[in-house]
Amino acid sequence: MSFLRALLGRSKPAQPDLDALFGLPSAAITLQATAGLRPTGTGSVAFRPAEGRAFNELQQSVTELLNAGGGPRVEATTDEYGYTWLVLEAPAQPADPSTGGISELVTDIHAVNSSLEANGYGPSLLCSLVAFADGDGRRIALVYLYKRGTFYPFAPLSGQRRDNALELQVEAAVGNDLAVEKEKSRWFPVYGAPGL
């Protein structure tokens, strides 16, 4: 089959690797050292909601599970394109204050993605992001593309513009920590993403 695929010029689609999310704490340390960007303690998971009671119950149980016992505050919102965003905020007193609770946040983001994937809703997942900021007001997110299994930086500016220089700086900085998406045409903007 791989010979036929090569002959026809088709490549095998990338597979999601949710464990790649666990590279984010290392990338956070790199960003703090190289660009002064610190985690804000906020992350989110975007997915297209499925119709039916089973999906609604799954979303509700995931939200309740994360909200229980001192976990992150979770809020669901819907964007103008119909995607649901589960926004997670790390606890105010993270286990490791120097990293802004990113380890706990990444674990919770992984749990949301894994729960949706395990229940057959993996194709509905769009992306996950973790937000960073510096003292000068610059904001950036490291966005994980579920269907590609890669990350890219997104730095919004006012008026639906992007800080391309900052995105390229972050790409260079975290290239050893994360699998960065090579095709920049796939670095789609997530303007107005909750949590960013």
Automatic annotation (TrEMBL):
Which InterPro entries does the UniProt record give? PspAB-like
Entry superkingdom: Bacteria
Pfam families from the UniProt entry:
PspAB
The protein depicted here goes by the name: Uncharacterized protein
